[in-house]
Structure formats: C-alpha cells, structure tokens
C-alpha cells in the first residue's frame, strides 16, 4: 500500500481511486484525511460480484461499498464513474450509492467550480442497460459472457462535454479507451484504473491487463493527458500482485 504523487497541470488537488472491489478501506481514508485533496475521483469498480437472483438490491449485498463512498464524500467532494464490475447495478442501486453524497456519473458530466467532470461508463454497463430497457424485471437474466453485441462505450455525449467551458476531467475506467475514442478530444485530464498495474510488474512494466493482454501499454503512471491508478485491491484469484503495491494516487498542481 502506498501513496503515489504526480505533478500535473491541474487547478485542483485530486485524489484518484480505482478498483476497490468491495474490500476493506480504512488505509485509504486514513491517506485521504492526511493529504486533504480538493476532490476525490473514483474511476470505477467499487463493486466486485453480486448475485442478482436474490431478494433486495444488488448494492445491498456489498459489505464495504456504501460505507466507503460515504467516508469519501465526508472528506471531499467525490465523483465516480462506472467500471465493468458495476454492470449488474440498476437505477435503484445507483440512487442508493448517490445517497452517500457521491456524484455518480453514468455517461454524464457536472460542473464543479471552474472544472467540468465527466464519467464514461464501461461498455459492459452500457450494453446491459440497453439490454434490459423496457423489461419489467429489475435484473433481467443475462450472462455477461453472452452479452449482446455492444462492445463499445457510449461516446455520443462527449461532444457536449468537450464544448463546456472550463478545465475538463474525464473519469474513464478503461485506459485502453483513450487511444480508441478519446485521443483527439480536447480533454485536459483522463483518470483511469482497471489494469491493476499489470498484476505482476517486472522492470517497471506490468505483465497483463484486461482489454490489453500481455505486456500492456497502459497500466500505471502518466501517459500524456491520462493518469492511471494501479488500483486498491487484488482480485486476480490465485495470481498475486508482485512488485506492484496497491496505491492511492494524488495529482498535485504544478
């Protein structure tokens, strides 16, 4: 566990969090209280796995997610985008998450002071929301592995986002989306996670990342206008994190 600090051309002191995966978070909030960021940005995957065949809301099955979000919101204004592990959540789940005080950005943006903050949802989230449209069930039966042929995120709203006045921050869980969809857009700062630092790091490089494969390009650090968190948890089953400590990222104005 470590705090990683980057200097960047930003008007605010930002804490970047990603990939909690419903794990214990005391060390994270201790770090946030010590560093006192102006805003907290959560780039997806606070949820891990939920069973939508049981009664009640999916978010009610999580142990740490809601307390974590509430704790963050009590420290600083907190903004969150949706990662691939949020795919099962329904409207009511999102509303409960928002009741913690966190602003949940699902392919949407808000103005905060002189900054515009957007959240680009994972393609899997967009696919499932489209699939269950007009279905009576809160969680219609659907195997994520057999999802409809919707493999791209909804970027239609980004033109409007980019036209806004002010410094533009985009929370985008998937760093591989940058080159595919965002590279030529006038976005000041993209904040990502998802790659878990490449899980095992050798000679400063990660070995594998979902969506990028072996020897991925984007696993951590600063890449042009994108900053990537190595994540807050290890969720790779029997594959350990080696030479790859979990981190809270802080982005300080230059």
UniProtKB/TrEMBL annotation:
Domain of life: Bacteria
Keywords from the named record: Hydrolase, Metal-binding
Calcineurin-like phosphoesterase domain boundaries: 12-197
Gene Ontology molecular functions: metal ion binding; UDP-2,3-diacylglucosamine hydrolase activity
Pfam families to which the protein is assigned, alphabetical: Metallophos
Keyword set includes Hydrolase: yes
Entry-linked Gene3D superfamilies: 3.60.21.10
Gene Ontology biological process: lipid A biosynthetic process
Gene Ontology CC entries for this record: membrane
Protein name: Calcineurin-like phosphoesterase domain-containing protein
Organism: Ruminococcus albus
